[in-house]
Amino acid sequence: MKTNIGITTILCLALALIFSKSEAVADGFVWHPEGSEYSVEFPSKGVESNSETTSNGISIQSVGIEYMEKGLYSRADFTKEPEAYLINKNIALENVKKFSREFGLDPFTTAIDRDVRGDVRVSSIGSRMFNVKGVNVLFRVQVIMLYGSRSSFSVVVAVPASEFPSWKGTGILDSVKKAR
User: Fold this and answer.
1) In 3D, which of 50, 65, 35, 47 has the Cα closest to residue 175?
2) Structure pTM?
3) What tens digit of pLDDT does each residue of 130-163 get?
4) Is 103 helix (H, G, I), strand (E, B) or coil?
5) CB-CB contact of 144 with 176 (8 Å)
6) How many domains does the chain have?
7) Within a domain: residue 4?
8) Closest by Cα among 73, 79, 83 to 53
9) Containing structural domain, residue 38
C-alpha cells in the first residue's frame, strides 16, 4: 500500500513539474515590442536598444533586448518586415546558417522547427569561445529565428558548455510564443 502512495505522489510531482511554468522565468519580464507577432520572457528586464540599417535600399528598423547574468547571455531582436510572409523555410534556413557563421559558431547544426500557419521557425545550435575576464570559455549557443506574416523575431541564448543545458536558458527559449 505504501508503495502505491509513493508512486502516485512521485507521478503527481512529475506532472506538476512538466506542466508548471519554468522556475527560470517565473515572474519574469515579458518582452513584446509594439508590432511584433511574438514575445519572449526573460528572468528580469534587460537593456533595450534600437537600430536602423539599410538593405537593398530599404530602411530596416529593429528593436532588441539584451539580458545578461553570470553564466547566461541572451538577446532577442524584432524587425517589422511587411514582406516577411514571403520568407519560406529554405530562405529561413539559409538565414540561420548565415547568422551562425557570422556569429562564429563552429561547429553548428541547423533545423527547420516549424512551417505552419504561415509562420516559419528555424533554429541553430553550436559552440563558440568567449573571453570571460581574460579566460577563454567554451559556450553553447542556441538560436531561434521566426518569420511571421509581417515581422521577424530572433532569440539567442549562450551558456558555458559546462553548464549546458541551463534551466534559465531553456526557460527563455521555451517562452518564445506567438503573441495574441
Assistant:
1) 65
2) 0.77
3) 988 889 999 999 999 999 888 889 999 999 999 9
4) coil
5) yes
6) 1
7) no
8) 79
9) 24-178
